[in-house]
Write a structure and sequence with these properties.
Blueprint lengths: L3 H5 L1 H24 L3 H24 L9 H18 L3 H23 L5 H19 L2 H4 L5 E2 L8 H24 L1 H11 L1 H6 L4 H27 L1 E2 L6 H14 L5 H16 L6 H16 L4 H14 L2
Antiparallel strand pairs: 1-2
Helix pairs in contact: 2-8, 3-8, 3-11, 3-12, 3-13, 4-5, 4-6, 4-11, 5-11, 8-9, 9-11, 12-13
């Protein structure tokens, strides 16, 4: 079990902060090294999935597993597309509005479901996401049906501009959630995840904090979904499909749940692996799944846990 110093000590805080600063520098300098439109798109996808995985992870501090994270992405993505196509609103309006809509979904669903314990919460969130997915598919006149909505205004005028917007947004989310995780709010979320009954006995309104975390999670994922819609210039039902929710969950778990930094590792690792084996065609899914299963077996606590152990042995002890 981690001690207080392992979780909240100043030494570990500054060490991880330095790591995040180095990571930020690499992200911002990447376009100077990586050339070509395809590689820039892969890096954009990495940024996008890191935001989704980190936003999912903030709720994991409470011990809750959300199987319907794609609900927020789809709701905000379609909100941005409809506002842009029918009202002519630009991305600087549709992105925050998409985030607000997703946050309201999180507030509503959280209020209704977060009193549930065990597998019931995960099952209900999954059902909400699938309801939205089916609604999008059977609404061809207003929402484009299975074809989705196309012709959405681009976010930036160039691929490089899209990359830097996604990178700055991703880094802002990472730093924000990292500081939130170390605040009194984050400590309470962690205490709820460790022992919700004891937290309630100490006078903490656990429902309020879980709903707040779910709302924050939804809002951030919503802005990411709206961003994705404008960069891809379309919104499709796949944004609300269970496959996206499962992928985000895997990224957080592979990287290391309830750590914020772990989902960064998971987001980059799984995205790059998926793209690296694209040339394998139909075998790609088999190879990808096998590698993910291998990671679960080798690192049941996430790749971040292995990284920390190696760092302590190689760097700290030398």
């Amino acid at each position: 079990m981690n001690t207080y110093q392992d979780l909240f000590g100043l030494t570990i805080f500054y060490r991880r902060l330095r790591g995040l600063v180095i990571f930020s520098t690499i992200v911002l300098m990447a376009p100077l090294v990586v050339k070509g439109g395809y590689f820039m798109e892969v890096l954009f996808l990495c940024n996008y999935y890191v935001v989704l995985a980190c936003s999912w992870d903030i709720l994991a501090y409470t011990g809750k597993v959300n199987f319907g994270h794609s609900l927020f992405v789809g709701a905000a993505g379609y909100t941005a597309a409809v506002l842009n196509l029918h009202l002519g609103w630009g991305p600087w309006l549709t992105l925050p509005i998409g985030g607000i809509v997703a946050g309201l979904f999180g507030l509503f669903i959280g209020t209704v479901t977060l009193r549930l314990r065990g597998p019931y919460f995960g099952g209900v969130t999954f059902c909400f996401a699938m309801l939205l997915y089916k609604l999008l598919c059977v609404s061809p006149k207003t929402l484009g049906g299975e074809e989705g909505l196309t012709g959405v205004s681009p976010l930036m005028s160039s691929l490089l501009g899209n990359y830097y917007f996604s990178a700055i947004f991703m880094l802002a989310v990472v730093f924000l959630l990292y500081f939130v995780s170390r605040s009194s709010f984050g400590i309470i979320l962690r205490s709820i995840g460790e022992n919700e009954t004891a937290s309630e006995g100490s006078g903490i309104n656990t429902t309020f904090y879980k709903v707040a975390a779910f709302t924050i999670s939804g809002t951030i994922a919503g802005v990411a979904g709206a961003m994705y819609t404008h960069i891809m210039m379309n919104a499709s039902p796949a944004m609300a499909h269970e496959a996206l929710g499962s992928l985000v969950l895997m990224m957080a778990v592979v990287g290391g749940m309830a750590s914020i930094i772990g989902p960064i590792i998971g987001g980059y690792t799984l995205t790059i692996i998926n793209e690296a084996f694209r040339f394998m065609g139909d075998l790609r899914l088999l190879i990808y799944t096998g590698l993910v299963l291998g990671m679960f077996l080798v690192a049941p606590k996430g790749l971040y846990d292995i990284f920390i152990r190696v760092f302590r042995r190689v760097v700290v002890r030398t």
